[in-house]
Amino acid sequence: MRSTINPRLKHGFIAGDLQASAIANRTGSVRTQSRLASRAVALGMLLSAMLFAACSRDEAKTADVPAAAPSVQIGAENVVTVKHDTIVVGPIITGELKAARDATIRAEIGGSVTQVAVEEGQPVKAGALLGRIEAQTLEDARTSAASAVRSAENQLAVAQREQQRAEQLVSAGALAARDLDNAKNAVTGADAQLADAKARLVNANKQLSDAVIRSPISGVVARRSVNRGDVVSVGSELFVVIDPSSMRLEASVPSESLSDLRVGATVDFAVRGYEQRFEGHIERIAPQADPATRQVPIFVAIPNSGGRLVAGLYAEGRVVSQRAEGLVVAANAVNTSSGTPWALRVAGGKTERVNVGVGLSDPRTERVQIVSGLNEGDVVLRGAAQGITPGTPVTVSVQQ
Known about the structure:
Layout: H1 7-64, E1 72-74, E2 79-81, E3 83-89, E4 92-106, E5 111-116, E6 123-124, E7 129-133, H2 136-172, H3 177-210, E8 212-214, E9 219-224, E10 231-232, E11 237-254, E12 266-271, E13 277-285, E14 295-303, E15 314-319, E16 322-330, E17 342-347, E18 350-355, E19 357-362, E20 367-372, E21 379-381, E22 394-396
Parallel strand pairs: 1-22
Antiparallel strand pairs: 2-21, 3-16, 4-11, 4-15, 5-7, 5-10, 6-9, 7-8, 9-11, 11-14, 12-13, 12-15, 13-14, 16-20, 17-18, 17-21, 19-20
């Protein structure tokens, strides 16, 4: 028996199948998309894990590399540069500069100053006029002495003629010998009076010349103590003239340094007010030490070409017993605590310890000679900066 199906039902079944198929298809598509999304999420998580692991490995590698050490800042007070210079060793001296030749002109007669012909600092020649003292009284005395000389000369001439006549008369027997003796005595007396008159004239001329004040040496007027119109007495200071062409340093040396002293030894010294240094030579050594200070006076001759040095200034220096020229550095830049001297040099931005050889040491200027280990221009640390570990990066703010 064949069954018969309603067409509407048939079409309904077909439509239902189609709808079911569509739903199934949509459900499969959703599931497929869900699976794809899940796979994408899993892949992203895997990639994140791989990136995290890679970063961890990089961080671990970076952690194995030590960080750069910070640079130490070094100030100017802890830095010194090796320089080429001269170092001197010997006894220290101090003293005053004085002119090797000077003259203090004093009044030899009393009176009023009528003329002052020079000023301080003015150069003068030997015999140059410096001033005059009023001498009218002396001029009168000289005139009187000159008259006395002329009178005595006339009296002597008369006495001599009388003696000649007496001799002739005595020879002729017309006069006694006693009269000749009297004539001779008269000549002797007249001669004595003439000599006395001449002496008084010489003295008057001398006093008159003393009224004219002249320079005894060539030099420069260092001091003028009078003005026109001043009244001076015998012995009053009028002028001081010095010869600046050659100066002398009068200094003292400790008695324990006598072994380093000898005539002709070089003396190196500085003078306040001058930037350059000067040299002289020991001219004399005192035979006796000062009883108060126990120091030995020495006299140093100093050539003063051009007259640059000025008398009266304070000078200090040393007698040169040893001298060396070469590399010189501050004494506190060389460490001698370990036996072998060393210095902490800055090279390539880092510190390095260098063993050095030293020569002469000058405790006065606190410098030492370097004979090996360093070069001119090297920068070394001194003082507290020597405690920096060798190899430490440093930055020098100011290099001296």
